[in-house]
Design goal:
- There is one protein chain.
- A hairpin with a 5-residue loop joins strand 5 and strand 6.
- The strands form 3 sheets. This protein has a 4-stranded antiparallel β-sheet with strand order 1-10-4-7, with no helix packed on it.
- The chain has 157 residues and is mostly beta strands.
- 11% of the residues lie in helices and 52% in strands.
- It is built from 1 helix and 10 strands; from the N terminus they run H-E-E-E-E-E-E-E-E-E-E.
- The chain has a single domain (21-153), classed as Sandwich (Jelly Rolls), CATH 2.60.120.
- The termini are far apart.
- The longest helix has 17 residues, at 2-18.
Amino acid sequence: MKRIYLIISLFALLCFCGCNHKTYYGHIQTLPHEKWAVDKPLYFKINIEDSMQYYNMYIQMRNTTDFATQNFYVFMKTKYPDGHSEQDTLGFILCDKFGNWTGKGNGRLKDNKFLFQPKVRFPYNGEYIFTVTQGMRDEVVEGIESFGILLEKYEDK
Protein backbone atom coordinates (compact mmCIF):
# COMPACT_ATOMS: atom_id res chain seq x y z
CA MET A 1 0.00 0.00 0.00
CA LYS A 2 2.85 2.39 0.83
CA ARG A 3 4.36 1.58 -2.53
CA ILE A 4 1.24 2.78 -4.37
CA TYR A 5 1.27 6.08 -2.45
CA LEU A 6 4.97 6.48 -3.23
CA ILE A 7 4.39 5.90 -6.96
CA ILE A 8 1.42 8.30 -7.03
CA SER A 9 3.42 10.94 -5.12
CA LEU A 10 6.40 10.63 -7.49
CA PHE A 11 4.11 10.85 -10.52
CA ALA A 12 2.40 13.98 -9.14
CA LEU A 13 5.78 15.54 -8.37
CA LEU A 14 7.02 14.87 -11.91
CA CYS A 15 3.86 16.33 -13.41
CA PHE A 16 4.13 19.43 -11.22
CA CYS A 17 7.84 19.98 -11.94
CA GLY A 18 7.34 19.39 -15.66
CA CYS A 19 5.00 22.35 -16.06
CA ASN A 20 6.57 25.45 -17.57
CA HIS A 21 5.04 28.46 -15.85
CA LYS A 22 7.10 30.82 -18.01
CA THR A 23 5.28 29.97 -21.23
CA TYR A 24 2.59 32.55 -21.95
CA TYR A 25 1.77 31.57 -25.54
CA GLY A 26 2.93 28.86 -27.85
CA HIS A 27 1.51 27.72 -31.16
CA ILE A 28 3.15 25.75 -33.96
CA GLN A 29 1.52 25.26 -37.35
CA THR A 30 2.35 22.25 -39.50
CA LEU A 31 2.77 22.87 -43.22
CA PRO A 32 1.13 20.33 -45.54
CA HIS A 33 3.60 18.06 -47.33
CA GLU A 34 6.52 20.05 -45.81
CA LYS A 35 5.96 22.82 -48.38
CA TRP A 36 5.25 26.50 -47.79
CA ALA A 37 3.71 28.43 -50.67
CA VAL A 38 4.19 32.20 -50.80
CA ASP A 39 0.41 32.68 -51.06
CA LYS A 40 -0.27 30.66 -47.86
CA PRO A 41 0.50 32.93 -44.88
CA LEU A 42 0.36 31.65 -41.31
CA TYR A 43 -1.66 33.54 -38.69
CA PHE A 44 -0.98 33.75 -34.96
CA LYS A 45 -3.35 35.61 -32.62
CA ILE A 46 -1.97 36.50 -29.21
CA ASN A 47 -4.04 38.19 -26.53
CA ILE A 48 -1.86 40.35 -24.28
CA GLU A 49 -3.47 40.95 -20.89
CA ASP A 50 -0.65 42.89 -19.16
CA SER A 51 1.16 45.56 -21.16
CA MET A 52 3.72 45.94 -18.35
CA GLN A 53 4.95 42.32 -18.61
CA TYR A 54 8.20 41.62 -20.47
CA TYR A 55 8.53 38.54 -22.70
CA ASN A 56 11.15 36.66 -24.65
CA MET A 57 9.73 35.99 -28.10
CA TYR A 58 10.95 32.93 -29.97
CA ILE A 59 10.45 31.53 -33.43
CA GLN A 60 10.21 27.74 -33.50
CA MET A 61 10.80 25.99 -36.77
CA ARG A 62 11.22 22.43 -37.92
CA ASN A 63 12.94 21.85 -41.23
CA THR A 64 13.88 18.69 -43.07
CA THR A 65 17.23 17.76 -44.56
CA ASP A 66 15.53 18.32 -47.95
CA PHE A 67 15.69 22.10 -47.36
CA ALA A 68 17.84 23.38 -50.23
CA THR A 69 19.53 26.54 -48.90
CA GLN A 70 21.53 27.72 -45.91
CA ASN A 71 19.19 30.56 -44.90
CA PHE A 72 15.43 30.93 -44.62
CA TYR A 73 13.59 34.27 -44.75
CA VAL A 74 10.07 35.25 -43.70
CA PHE A 75 8.06 38.44 -43.61
CA MET A 76 6.24 39.03 -40.34
CA LYS A 77 3.45 41.58 -40.20
CA THR A 78 2.26 42.62 -36.76
CA LYS A 79 -1.18 44.16 -36.37
CA TYR A 80 -1.61 45.96 -33.03
CA PRO A 81 -4.86 46.24 -31.05
CA ASP A 82 -5.10 49.93 -31.99
CA GLY A 83 -5.15 49.00 -35.70
CA HIS A 84 -1.70 50.05 -36.91
CA SER A 85 0.69 47.52 -38.46
CA GLU A 86 4.41 46.97 -38.85
CA GLN A 87 6.36 44.50 -40.96
CA ASP A 88 9.74 42.87 -40.33
CA THR A 89 11.95 40.67 -42.47
CA LEU A 90 13.43 37.81 -40.47
CA GLY A 91 16.34 35.64 -41.53
CA PHE A 92 17.29 32.29 -40.04
CA ILE A 93 20.45 30.27 -40.54
CA LEU A 94 19.39 26.64 -40.81
CA CYS A 95 22.73 25.23 -41.89
CA ASP A 96 26.36 26.37 -41.75
CA LYS A 97 28.64 26.77 -44.78
CA PHE A 98 29.86 23.19 -44.36
CA GLY A 99 26.36 21.71 -44.60
CA ASN A 100 25.90 21.06 -40.87
CA TRP A 101 22.33 21.67 -39.70
CA THR A 102 21.89 24.13 -36.82
CA GLY A 103 18.76 22.44 -35.50
CA LYS A 104 18.58 19.53 -33.10
CA GLY A 105 17.62 16.05 -34.22
CA ASN A 106 19.33 12.92 -35.47
CA GLY A 107 16.99 12.07 -38.34
CA ARG A 108 15.78 14.08 -41.30
CA LEU A 109 13.85 16.55 -39.10
CA LYS A 110 15.72 19.41 -37.39
CA ASP A 111 14.16 21.48 -34.59
CA ASN A 112 15.18 25.11 -34.23
CA LYS A 113 14.32 27.69 -31.57
CA PHE A 114 15.46 31.21 -32.44
CA LEU A 115 15.30 34.11 -29.99
CA PHE A 116 13.54 36.79 -32.04
CA GLN A 117 12.99 39.54 -29.47
CA PRO A 118 14.47 39.37 -26.00
CA LYS A 119 12.77 41.27 -23.17
CA VAL A 120 10.03 42.72 -25.37
CA ARG A 121 6.99 44.49 -23.96
CA PHE A 122 3.76 44.92 -25.90
CA PRO A 123 2.52 48.52 -25.65
CA TYR A 124 -1.24 47.77 -25.51
CA ASN A 125 -3.49 45.20 -23.93
CA GLY A 126 -5.53 43.28 -26.49
CA GLU A 127 -5.19 41.04 -29.51
CA TYR A 128 -2.05 41.11 -31.65
CA ILE A 129 -2.19 39.35 -35.00
CA PHE A 130 1.05 38.09 -36.53
CA THR A 131 0.90 37.20 -40.22
CA VAL A 132 3.94 35.26 -41.43
CA THR A 133 4.74 34.69 -45.11
CA GLN A 134 7.74 32.83 -46.46
CA GLY A 135 10.12 35.31 -48.07
CA MET A 136 12.21 33.14 -50.35
CA ARG A 137 12.56 33.61 -54.11
CA ASP A 138 10.70 30.38 -54.86
CA GLU A 139 6.91 30.35 -55.02
CA VAL A 140 6.92 27.13 -52.96
CA VAL A 141 9.67 26.31 -50.47
CA GLU A 142 10.23 22.62 -49.76
CA GLY A 143 11.66 21.30 -46.52
CA ILE A 144 9.83 23.40 -43.91
CA GLU A 145 7.71 21.09 -41.77
CA SER A 146 6.38 23.57 -39.19
CA PHE A 147 6.62 27.14 -37.96
CA GLY A 148 5.54 28.64 -34.67
CA ILE A 149 5.73 31.49 -32.16
CA LEU A 150 6.52 31.10 -28.48
CA LEU A 151 6.21 33.80 -25.80
CA GLU A 152 7.85 33.18 -22.45
CA LYS A 153 7.51 35.56 -19.53
CA TYR A 154 10.81 37.31 -18.97
CA GLU A 155 12.30 36.96 -15.51
CA ASP A 156 15.37 38.80 -14.19
CA LYS A 157 17.85 36.38 -12.72
